[in-house]
Design goal:
Elements (H helix, E strand, L loop, with lengths): L28 E10 L2 E11 L4 E5 L6 H9 L6 E6 L2 E2 L5 H7 L1 E3 L12 H10 L7 H14 L15 H13 L5 E5 L7 H16 L3 E5 L3 H7 L2 E6 L2 E6 L1 H5 L2 H8 L1 H12 L9 H18 L1
Parallel strand pairs: 3-8, 3-9, 6-7, 7-8
Antiparallel strand pairs: 1-2, 1-4, 4-5, 9-10
């Protein structure tokens, strides 16, 4: 997934580069009190936040936090139970996914979903045909070829989707989304299952896409990747927002660490900060577990 020097195949939308988004303009995406319930259980619970044009917003949280549900709500696969979702100042909660794609919202899927029976090139052509420019097939084919070059899949254009490796299926997901010419790109764990080298290539591609003016919302579990690519990070836990700030601030937040590593870890860190000893200190097993957990957390941030 290494980045290329060329600009996106779609005409690049105007917008500031990563880290320089304009705080005075209308948010490209805003959620206000958004809730999604399945039966009586809230997967997303009274969630509010905004994304500025040109920004990369990272979304993290433990398994079951509501991250993929959030992507579904923004992309249109799911309808909110309550609350308001606006895109470029327009309410979109009632719009189907294809209408949102025409407006410039594109997404990938956590589990790659190539169109069965189509080769890689035709998969990307479909994205170009249903994007916001209303291309005819000859134009869409040219866009597809350019996008495949960008994500380094051109040499596999004639293969079927089910013949690709995990990494190449992730590239195909990205290519199909880019072919729609998005203004807002929703990435749902595009780095899951990749090798460290492939993760770095994916990070560089996301940075390049963002530099070309595309606003990106990225859901990811790989901490070093989300820290390296995000301007800000928002943390979900049980469907609710528990933190939203700059990456270093969020990843050092005790509430975030507790959500990932557990209450016992948080108590141990608090006890160390207070200089607790003797009866107030954790036992040897707790200390060993804490060290193991901390190593895992810090290793993910390295």
């Amino acid at each position: 997934m290494s980045s290329a020097s060329s600009r996106p195949t779609a005409s690049s939308p105007s917008g500031p580069p990563s880290g320089a988004s304009d705080t005075t303009t209308t948010p490209i995406l805003a959620l206000d009190g958004v809730t999604k319930r399945f039966g009586g259980l809230p997967a997303v619970d009274d969630l509010s936040f905004a994304v500025r044009p040109g920004e990369v917003l990272g979304i993290i949280g433990p398994n079951g936090a509501g991250k993929s549900t959030l992507i579904g709500l923004i992309g249109g696969a799911l309808a909110p139970t309550g609350g308001v979702i606006t895109y470029a100042g327009r309410a979109i909660a009632d719009l189907p996914p294809h209408r949102r794609a025409h407006l410039g919202i594109a997404r990938t899927f956590q589990i790659a979903q190539p169109f069965v029976g189509l080769d890689v090139r035709d998969n990307v052509i479909v994205g170009a045909l249903f994007g916001r420019r209303g291309l005819r097939r000859p134009q869409a084919a040219r866009v597809a070829d350019e996008v495949l070059e960008r994500v380094h899949l051109a040499h596999k254009a004639t293969l079927k989707g089910d013949q690709l490796t995990v990494a190449d299926r992730k590239r195909l997901e990205m290519a199909r989304a880019l072919a729609t010419n998005p203004r807002l790109l929703l990435l749902d764990e595009v780095m899951a299952g990749l090798t460290p080298t492939e993760v770095e290539q994916a990070v560089e591609l996301i940075r390049a896409i963002n530099r070309d003016g595309v606003t990106v919302l990225v859901v990811e579990h790989i901490m070093r990747a989300i820290k390296g690519v995000s301007d800000r990070i928002l943390v979900l836990h049980h469907g609710r927002k528990i933190a939203e700030d700059l990456p270093d601030e969020v990843l050092a937040d005790p509430k975030v660490i507790e959500a990932y590593l557990g209450e016992r870890y948080a108590r141990q860190r608090a006890a160390e900060r207070e200089g607790a000893t003797g009866a107030n200190a954790t036992d040897a097993t707790d200390v060993t577990d804490t060290i193991d957990a901390e190593s895992e957390w810090k290793g993910g941030l390295a």
